[in-house]
Amino acid sequence: MNIQIEKNQLIQQIMELQDSSVIKKMRDFLSKETKNNDWYNSLSSSEKESIAKGLKDLDNGNTISHEDVIASVKNKIASLKQQ
Length: 83
Known about the structure:
single chain; mainly alpha; 2 domains; elongated
């Protein structure tokens, strides 16, 4: 069945509802579903901790510029070629 048809049928069923407790449950469910669509919510606690640590490092200026990383990699490659 076409998703648009299914949504329209669901809307029609909602429009016919008279039980406020069912409407509240649907509202709660939909609210929870839209909040959980954020990719961050699917991360593990260790991944979230790593992100928090990275943000703290950024705030504290504990960063390395892209240019410095590239220079370091080029130096490492050059030293490996000499071996």
